[in-house]
């Protein structure tokens, strides 16, 4: 497996090209941008794009999807049935599928957005915006934060410290590093009182 | 180009490091590099987790997507290096210089740094969350989108750097 990191200066987001050296197939994770640089890399390495993995439907992570599909004909995997008018392979909950010759595991991690998914290929997990190095994904309320924390603690922290994490924004990390240096992930809790405060908070129009 | 296998002989790897110039997917976790000159080498997707570098020179190295998590650097030089999308989380750096380097999209979270110089470097979009920095300088640096959250700082200089474009935690702003 060879991973090529591709940065979109427009949305400050990370995209990834994951190549399978044996089959010459590849996966793109979050096509936030589809530009000449990425195209050249695909063509130079004679890769056949077999799948596109969408971590969530925010524009900075899917902006290049339509351009990509004008050039290649991959399946698009997402927790949304349709993206920009494009029918996807709908993923719900947790599971596994095969793309580009890789067994791809997926994990639902709602909180940053309702459709947030993380994908694992071999020893690498693509976390999207659920988690980035040293930071928890941004959530809108205490319920979303608790939901996200529960999913991350159950699905990431039960894995080996040497697993690599590649996120939708910022630099790469490892599970071992996040365990020690992500205080939001390890120590913050949103207790029932926080949830109650959110529910009882007057609508913003009244405040 | 050299690719290590799990049972590759250490001596062969060291010989290759001296001879070859580009390395891809090499796993050198836990290795010790004492007094080695690796200047000008290219490392792509290599793993140096918990490796020890002492008195070694990595000037002008090109490093992409490499993991130096929990490694130790003492009296090392990485001047003019181009290190992007790499992870130094939990590393210990002592008496080490990264001067005049491109350090973009790098993870320095949990770093323990003493007498380290990042002067004249581009640290765009890198992170120093929960880092402990002592006698460490970021002078004349590009700190756009560089994140300093929950850092402990003692004798740290940001002179002539664009700290207003950096992201500091509440009350952690150096100004």
Describe, in plain words, how this protein is organized in 3D.
The complex is a heterodimer of chains A (207) and B (175). Chain A has 207 residues and is α/β, with parallel strands linked by helices. In chain A, 26% of the residues lie in helices and 33% in strands. Chain A starts with a strand and ends in a 7-residue tail after the last helix. In chain A, the strands form four sheets. A six-stranded mixed beta sheet of chain A has the order 1-2-3-4-5-8, with no helix packed on it. Chain A has a six-stranded mixed beta sheet with strand order 9-10-11-12-15-16. Chain A has seven helices and 16 strands. Chain A has one domain: Metallo-beta-lactamase, Chain A (4-Layer Sandwich), CATH 3.60.15.10. Chain A is globular and about 50 Å long. The mean pLDDT of chain A is 92. By secondary structure, chain B is mostly beta strands. Chain B has a single domain, classed as E3 ubiquitin-protein ligase SopA (Pectate Lyase C-like), CATH 2.160.20. Helices cover 6% and strands 28% of the residues of chain B. Chain B is built from one helix and 13 strands, in the order αβββββββββββββ.
Please outline the helices and strands:
The complex is a heterodimer of chains A (207) and B (175).
Chain A: E1 2-8, E2 13-20, E3 25-29, H1 36-44, E4 48-53, H2 59-62, H3 65-71, E5 75-78, E6 82-83, E7 86-87, E8 89-90, E9 95-99, E10 102-108, E11 117-121, E12 124-128, E13 131-132, E14 135-136, H4 142-155, E15 164-167, E16 173-174, H5 175-181, H6 183-186, H7 192-200
Parallel strand pairs in A: 3-4, 4-5, 5-8, 12-15
Antiparallel strand pairs in A: 1-2, 2-3, 6-7, 9-10, 10-11, 11-12, 13-14, 15-16
Chain B: H1 10-19, E1 22-24, E2 32-34, E3 42-44, E4 52-54, E5 62-64, E6 72-74, E7 82-84, E8 92-97, E9 112-117, E10 132-137, E11 147-148, E12 152-157, E13 167-168
Parallel strand pairs in B: 1-3, 2-4, 3-5, 4-6, 5-7, 6-8, 8-9, 9-10, 10-12, 11-13
């Amino acid at each position: 497996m060879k991973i090529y990191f591709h940065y979109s200066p427009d949305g400050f987001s990370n995209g990834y090209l994951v190549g399978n050296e044996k089959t010459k197939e590849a996966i793109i994770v979050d096509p936030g941008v589809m530009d000449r640089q990425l195209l050249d890399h695909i063509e130079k390495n004679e890769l056949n794009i077999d799948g596109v993995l969408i971590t969530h439907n925010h524009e900075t992570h899917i902006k290049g999807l339509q351009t990509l599909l004008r050039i290649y004909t991959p399946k698009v995997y997402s927790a949304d049935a349709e993206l920009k008018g494009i029918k996807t392979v709908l993923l719900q909950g947790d599971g596994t599928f095969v793309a580009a010759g890789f067994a791809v595991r997926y994990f639902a991690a709602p909180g940053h957005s309702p459709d947030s998914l993380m994908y694992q290929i071999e020893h690498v997990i693509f976390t999207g915006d659920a988690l980035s190095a040293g930071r928890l994904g941004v959530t809108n309320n205490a319920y979303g934060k608790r939901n996200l924390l529960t999913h991350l603690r159950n699905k990431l922290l039960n894995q080996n410290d040497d697993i690599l994490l590649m996120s939708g924004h910022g630099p790469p990390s490892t599970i071992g590093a996040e365990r020690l240096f992500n205080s939001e992930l390890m120590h913050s809790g949103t207790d029932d009182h926080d949830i109650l405060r959110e529910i009882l908070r007057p609508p913003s129009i009244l405040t | 180009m050299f690719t290590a296998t799990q049972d590759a002989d250490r001596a062969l790897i060291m010989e290759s490091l001296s001879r070859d110039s580009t390395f891809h997917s090499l796993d050198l976790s836990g290795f010790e590099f004492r007094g080695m000159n690796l200047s000008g080498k290219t490392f792509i997707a290599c793993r140096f987790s918990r490796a020890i570098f002492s008195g070694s020179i990595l000037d002008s190295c090109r490093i992409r997507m490499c993991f130096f998590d929990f490694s130790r650097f003492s009296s090392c030089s990485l001047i003019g290096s181009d290190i992007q999308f790499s992870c130094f989380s939990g590393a210990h750096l002592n008496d080490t210089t990264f001067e005049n380097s491109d350090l973009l999209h790098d993870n320095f979270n949990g770093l323990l740094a003493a007498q380290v110089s990042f002067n004249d470097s581009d640290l765009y979009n890198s992170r120093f969350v929960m880092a402990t920095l002592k006698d460490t300088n970021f002078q004349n640096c590009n700190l756009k989108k560089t994140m300093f959250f929950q850092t402990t700082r003692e004798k740290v200089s940001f002179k002539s750097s664009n700290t207003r474009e950096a992201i500091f935690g509440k009350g952690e702003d150096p100004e």
